[in-house]
Design goal:
Length: 132
């Protein structure tokens, strides 16, 4: 009987560990092109949309303004997840890199999600993007 209980406990532990999502780095789901010349996008909050642009329109090797966004993104840790439920007060940032759609970042304060090609990733270490 003790062996059966021990076997069941070991089986439960193994199944629990197998169900854990692996934490992945942001660079595994999106890679910025080299060089990243300009990052543009929109910030949506409380029904208002504000456009932003980081970096010059034409390549300037001395302009390093996009590095702050790239470093912020590369520092994010996430796990793949299902689409979260709708919530009020969500801030949404859409990012385009060198004119091409890159990703969306939904910031909910204590929670955040990255959306790339309709795939959702829950961010383990949420923070506001450095777009200013």
């Amino acid at each position: 009987m003790k062996r059966l209980i021990a076997f069941v406990l070991v089986l439960v532990c193994v199944l629990c560990l197998a169900g854990c999502q692996k934490i992945i780095s942001a660079s595994e789901v999106y890679s910025f092109p080299e060089p990243t010349i300009q990052i543009t996008g929109s910030f949506y909050s409380q029904g208002q949309e504000t456009a932003f642009a980081i970096g010059p329109e034409k390549y300037d090797p001395n302009d390093l303004s996009t590095i702050s966004v790239i470093s912020w993104f590369d520092g994010l840790e996430m796990t793949a997840c299902d689409e979260p439920e709708e919530a009020e007060g969500v801030e949404s940032y859409t990012f385009k890199v060198d004119g091409k759609d890159a990703f969306t970042y939904e910031y909910r304060g204590s929670e955040a999600y990255i959306i790339i090609d309709s795939t959702y990733y829950k961010v383990s270490n949420p923070s506001t993007p450095p777009i200013n």
